[in-house]
Predict the structure.
Amino acid sequence: MIQTEEAANVVHHKTAPEMWETLKGLEYHDVLTKIANSVVEFTFKLVIAALVFYGGRYVIRKIYEVTSRVLVGRKVDKSLTTFVLSLVKILLYFILIVTVIGILGIETSSFLALFASAGVAIGMALSGTLQNFAGGVLILLLKPYRVGDYIEAQGYAGTVKEIQIFHTVINTADNKAIIIPNGGLSTGTINNYSLEDYRRVDWTVSLAYGDDYEKAREVILEMLAEEEMTVKTTVAADRQRRALKMAEDKRDAMLEECAKHPEDKACRELLEEPAEDIPEKKRSWIKSIFSRKDNSIPQADSQVLKQITMPSSTDNTKRPPFVGLSALADSSINLTVRAWTHSSDYWTLFFKMNHRFYKELPERGFHFPFPQMDVHISQNTD
């Protein structure tokens, strides 16, 4: 038995010439016995390695499924979910392959050293790519922006379409796809216009000298007060107003849809409710219809219901429209006009008020100055 183990060690740890020199002095029967023992031992290791490999594959599959369910259940960002699952799968398979190689009798230390050296060489060759990879990981973890946000970074502005591991794809206003490496995005400055739900809109209105500033200020403030999109007092009050309006719009849509299904119990309750102001009474029909799973009735956003039942008070700072005299220019007095609005209404309000300023201010007796040149012609009497 001791000779058999020694023979197996000879077969496994010596080179082919050394093995030949070792076996040359043995009898034919001893050589066959030693080779048979080595083959049996290697076969036994191969079977164990195969069992470990297939068992490990099953375990990895289960870990992958559990991790996927946890990430999806916690509503983790889709891009981050894909990255984490891929990383877990690669690491687990690497550990499994190293384990199987060790079972077969191959020295794993030299294999790991070779792999580490190759990793260092590849890392030096792909330093820029690895920087983008690290930047992508940071972006997916810290979430400075999300898919659908309008951002400005690296000299480009647009809506985020995709967040990949190595780069981010944004669509510009004229629908051009811009691919920006994540390395610069993770270390540079990003202007995320979608991060806050309310923004301030600024205009500069130039009037001619001689126009009544106080009257112009009153007229402009009156115009801004007429716009539903502007914040009249506080952001919190406007946020609640928007939520109530959305609820009323959805109630109207439900009433229209319920007219087609008068036999439905929830629809009968809704049709019997008096049209009162929503804040005065938290009606049961709101929760009952909002929680329906029937696709025939429009579903309301859960955030809307939350804002109806629990009005937001996160921003009670006074933010009414503002008009002030900002500059006495060469040929005009410049008025700075400011108003707060929801981010989704920013450009709509900006262009609409520009149109109203241009159309309505002259009708109120105000004048827009423009560059002029006076030419005096002197006649030579000689």
User: Anything to note?
Assistant: The longest helix spans residues 28-73. The first strand starts at residue 150 and ends at 153.
